[in-house]
Design a protein that fits this description.
Number of helices: 2
Largest sheet: 5 strands, mixed
Order of helices and strands: HEEEHEE
Strand order of the largest sheet: 1-2-3-5-4
CATH topology: STM4215-like
Structural class: alpha+beta
Strand content: 35-45%
Radius of gyration: 16 Å
Number of strands: 5
Helix content: 10-25%
């Protein structure tokens, strides 16, 4: 694997997600991106599904000692697929399943620097006016410090 910064690794994972999600025509909310999407408890104004992305890093493993040090880092990318409650859970399962399959089929980012492992879906259920099913994938990359 090539060496990336944490920001670059996350940006590449987002870009990989975007390749599939743009084909759906639905909106996505990325961390630190301004949005006019409804809040979690609001009633959907236009009852359209959307995705919200979250990233959670885990402690890294030191791969090489000396200076600089090489670390292998891991994070979980969670894609919260949200559909309006009352339309049934199938659209959420279909979209989350397609996101999962995209990461499984892709295997890594376009640069080859971030590898995807353990893609899965997780049923969350109703959250206010929304029904949630998550697609999650673990991402692995190297960083120099």
């Amino acid at each position: 694997m090539s060496v990336l910064t944490t920001f670059e690794a996350v940006a590449e994972a987002f870009a990989t997600f975007k390749v599939y999600w743009d084909t759906t025509g639905y909106d996505a909310v990325y961390p630190n991106k301004g949005t006019d999407m409804p809040t979690d408890t609001a009633s959907p104004v236009a009852p359209a599904p959307y995705a919200r992305l979250r990233v959670r890093h885990f402690p890294g493993d030191q791969a090489l000692s000396g200076r600089p040090r090489l670390y292998t880092e891991t994070f979980t990318l969670t894609v919260e697929v949200r559909v309006p409650a009352g339309v049934g859970s199938k659209p959420a399962y279909d979209l989350a399943g397609a996101v999962k399959a995209h990461f499984e089929d892709t295997g890594r980012t376009a640069s080859g620097c971030v590898w995807f492992r353990n893609a899965r879906i997780q049923e969350i259920g109703e959250d206010g006016a929304w029904w949630l099913v998550w697609a999650q994938v673990d991402a692995v990359y190297d960083v120099l410090r």
